[in-house]
């Protein structure tokens, strides 16, 4: 991610970090206020239901008491008894007695006119039933409720059911199913009442916060004005606003810190390793005697999520300087085994070279990692070659110990980019090496007037004298190839044959190259040449 992009993203994140906590606090307060109001409504619905049950229990007691009193039906004594029972009751206005479906008398006296018994609207169970909105015949009143049992009926004022003391403006109600409103303390939207009387519910609409509670056959409900519930947020805002500001400040600080860390090249590289943004490309190594592809050098490549490639000569030195080269080496080993295990098992003569840094060579920490990966994959240790630059051999005694351990594990060891560092004949003689790689700068000087052109044959002769296998890097022309073949260099790599290829393309190149034979080596190389980074390796 480019620095400018990171700065823009960090600025946007900082703005969001400042705003989002405040928005979140506002949303949280609103949700809390509505939830609290819904719980408030549910509590009052429960109290309304309890109040209704107490009123109905009182009416049941009255009816049972009326039925058990002795005396002649509708006699003066009977009427007096009914009057006394009604007066003693808290919630019953009048008691009537029916015979053969006709009202005969009430607590106020005998009834002369014909008053038929109204069919019940709600079955309350146990022989008790309820008639809704009945008009009293013995006194003037608003429509009332009539609870009946056997021959007696008790009249109840509907408002007694919702006579619950409230702490704010709200509407309470009791119903006996959809469309059967028994009592309500105020007016309500018909659409909302259909929802509330249908069963247990809780919610919020454009104008109301509401809740209902069902206990068959009754449903109690309560609702209040939504604006009233949200209006109580002001005090909560004053309490939680400092907390929101504190969270915003903390988040902005975190964003700034993270963005600074992200802008650090070291942090960028560490994150990339953790996210495994690296792939391995393979530069073919050609046997000059027959033109066959017999090996490849594994080159680590860093591809960012946005598709950009980071040059190895940028991230490899950074990894070495910051101590990140070790996890990078582990990732290289893992990728190589994942990519090439199947191909290496199919051809035991094929080998892959991996580059080991001076730090890892001296510590030897890479070797157990490599040995475990090789053992799990089922390939031969000899199929993984180890390459180290001359810098890794400065501390000759430590390097010799690491090389011996690697060779004992079955790996071949080569000195890479020979002639560009601190090497000397005595150094080479004192190290148990297997191969030497001629740096591309010496190969480029072949058949030219460059001063280094006279060095190349001496390097080759020295390697032959030490019985080291030789690999030439950076071969780009047929003249260079011919010179190296004539000088007895057995192996070469470079753009004459192919650029570094992804794993699948390398497999295809090798198959085609080896199928064509020696005569097609040059054409195959031209077919794969292209832009790339030559002998830049991931070490």
UniProtKB/TrEMBL annotation:
Recorded hits in SMART domains, A to Z, give: EAL
UniProt entry keywords in alphabetical sequence: c-di-GMP, Cell membrane, Hydrolase, Membrane, Transmembrane, Transmembrane helix
From the Swiss-Prot or TrEMBL record, state where the protein is found.
Cell membrane
Please give the superkingdom of this protein's source. Answer: Bacteria
Q: Which GO terms describe its molecular function?
A: cyclic-guanylate-specific phosphodiesterase activity
Q: Give me the segments passing through the membrane.
A: 237-258
Cite a GO CC annotation.
plasma membrane
Where do the EAL domain residues begin and end?
A: 262-514
Q: Which catalytic reaction applies to this protein?
A: 3',3'-c-di-GMP + H2O = 5'-phosphoguanylyl(3'->5')guanosine + H(+)
| Top EC group | hydrolase
What Pfam families does UniProt report for this protein, alphabetically?
CSS-motif, EAL
Stated EC number for the protein is 3.1.4.52
Q: Where is this region: Disordered?
A: 512-539
Instruction: Enumerate the InterPro entries for this protein.
Output: CSS-motif_dom, Cyclic-di-GMP_PDE-like, EAL_dom, EAL_sf
Q: Which organism is it from?
A: Rhizorhabdus histidinilytica
* Name listed for the protein in its UniProt record: cyclic-guanylate-specific phosphodiesterase
């Amino acid at each position: 991610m480019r620095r400018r992009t990171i700065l823009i993203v960090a600025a946007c994140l900082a703005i969001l970090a400042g705003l989002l906590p405040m928005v979140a606090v506002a949303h949280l307060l609103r949700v809390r206020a509505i939830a609290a109001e819904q719980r408030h409504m549910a509590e009052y619905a429960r109290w309304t239901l309890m109040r209704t049950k107490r009123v109905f229990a009182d009416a049941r007691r009255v009816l049972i008491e009326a039925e058990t009193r002795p005396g002649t039906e509708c006699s003066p004594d009977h009427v007096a008894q009914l009057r006394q029972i009604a007066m003693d009751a808290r919630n019953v206005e009048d008691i009537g007695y029916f015979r053969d479906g006709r009202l005969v008398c009430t607590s106020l006296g005998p009834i002369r006119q014909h008053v038929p018994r109204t069919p019940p609207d709600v079955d309350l169970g146990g022989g008790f039933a309820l008639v809704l909105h009945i008009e009293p015949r013995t006194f003037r009143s608003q429509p009332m409720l009539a609870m009946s049992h056997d021959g007696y009926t008790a009249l109840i004022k509907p408002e007694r059911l919702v006579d619950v003391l409230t702490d704010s403006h709200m509407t309470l109600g009791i119903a006996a199913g959809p469309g059967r409103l028994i009592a309500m303390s105020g007016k309500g939207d018909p659409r909302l009442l259909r929802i509330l009387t249908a069963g247990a519910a809780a919610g919020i609409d454009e104008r109301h916060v509401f809740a209902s509670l069902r206990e068959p056959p009754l449903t109690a409900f309560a609702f209040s004005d939504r604006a009233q519930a949200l209006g109580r947020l002001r005090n909560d805002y004053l309490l939680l606003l400092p907390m929101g500001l504190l969270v915003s400040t903390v988040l902005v600080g975190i964003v700034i810190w993270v963005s600074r860390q992200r802008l650090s090249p070291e942090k960028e590289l560490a994150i990339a390793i953790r996210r495994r943004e690296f792939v391995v490309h393979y530069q073919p190594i050609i046997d000059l005697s027959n033109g066959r592809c017999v090996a490849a050098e594994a080159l680590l490549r860093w591809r960012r999520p946005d598709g950009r490639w980071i040059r190895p000569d940028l991230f490899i030195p950074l990894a070495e300087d910051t101590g990140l080269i070790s996890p990078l080496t582990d990732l290289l080993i893992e990728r190589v085994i994942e990519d090439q295990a199947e191909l290496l098992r199919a051809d035991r003569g094929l080998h892959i070279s991996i580059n080991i840094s001076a730090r890892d060579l001296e510590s030897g920490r890479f070797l157990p990692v490599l040995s475990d990966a090789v053992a799990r994959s089922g390939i031969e240790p000899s199929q993984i070659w180890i390459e180290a630059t001359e810098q890794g051999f400065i501390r000759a005694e430590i390097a010799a110990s690491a090389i011996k351990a690697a060779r004992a594990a079955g790996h071949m060891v080569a000195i890479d980019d020979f002639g560009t560092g601190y090497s000397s004949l005595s150094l080479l003689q004192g190290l148990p090496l297997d191969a030497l790689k001629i740096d591309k700068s010496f190969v480029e000087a072949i058949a030219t007037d460059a001063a280094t052109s006279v060095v190349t044959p001496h390097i080759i002769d020295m390697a032959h004298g030490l019985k080291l296998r030789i690999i030439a890097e950076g071969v780009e022309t047929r003249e260079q190839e011919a010179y190296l073949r004539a000088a007895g260099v057995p192996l070469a790599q470079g753009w004459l044959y192919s650029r570094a290829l992804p794993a699948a393309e390398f497999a295809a190149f090798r198959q085609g190259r080896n199928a064509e034979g020696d005569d097609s080596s040059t054409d195959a190389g031209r077919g794969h040449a292209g832009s790339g980074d030559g002998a830049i390796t991931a070490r």
